[in-house]
Design goal:
Layout (H helix, E strand, L loop, with lengths): L4 E4 L3 H13 L4 E4 L2 H9 L9 E5 L7 H10 L6 E5 L4 H9 L4 E4 L4 H33 L3 H10 L5 H8 L3 H15 L4 H11 L2
Parallel strand pairs: 1-2, 1-3, 3-4, 4-5
Helix pairs in contact: 2-3, 5-9, 6-8, 7-8
């Protein structure tokens, strides 16, 4: 289940037509006949989701698209979900978007419009995945700091100079310089400004 596009629809002809469309555009797609079998496969991946997009028919039996979407959210699955809907289901689809779905398209839709929206969602999923990986790296780097290095780091990101830090912590400026160099190396930064920016972006 490493494909980038998951097509979940109980209409076999429609599923295969969409799979062929994405294959013709250079994308790998996998089809699923219903929400339950798709969710079972998705659960097996948690928490190593990778990045993917889900095309989800809003009306399916026995598990509806909305129910499938809610279960994906409960699993903390980060994949963007794009609902495929008939005219009478637009209201439900709008509510789903407000509840966190990526978008919806009303059948019948233009192939180019669908492919463009899916490619936008894939790009967003990839960016979110990269952000998550960066945040994990920052957390891992912070965990390698000694208690004294954490104290120096806290002073650095408040914009204090080495001598002020030394006075506040009761150590010599040379010791501060030593800890500062270790912190920069472990956190993969070259300045206190870069350090503060990285922590502000990834460690919240």
């Amino acid at each position: 289940m490493n494909s980038a596009i998951h097509i979940v629809d109980d209409d076999p002809d429609f599923r295969e037509a969409l799979a062929w469309l994405f294959d013709s555009r250079g994308h790998q797609a996998q089809t699923w006949p219903g929400g339950d079998v798709f969710l079972a496969a998705a659960r097996s991946l948690a928490p190593n989701w990778g990045h993917a997009v889900v095309l989800l028919d809003i009306r399916m039996e026995p598990r509806s698209g909305l129910s499938t979407f809610e279960e994906l959210k409960a699993l903390a699955c980060p994949w963007p979900v794009l609902f495929l809907t008939g005219h009478g289901d637009v209201g439900m689809a709008v509510a789903a978007v407000k509840n966190g779905a990526w978008d919806f398209l009303e059948k019948p839709f233009q192939n180019n419009v669908l492919v463009n929206r899916v490619e936008e969602a894939l790009a967003a999923a990839s960016a979110a995945s990269d952000e998550g990986q960066q945040a994990q790296l920052v957390r891992q780097a912070l965990a390698t700091l000694s208690s004294r290095e954490r104290e120096v780091l806290d002073e650095l990101i408040h914009g204090r100079y080495n001598k002020n830090i030394a006075d506040r912590l009761g150590i010599t400026p040379r010791t501060v310089e030593f800890h500062r160099a270790n912190i920069f190396k472990k956190m993969d930064v070259t300045s206190a400004v870069e350090l503060a920016h990285k922590l502000g972006r990834y460690s919240s």
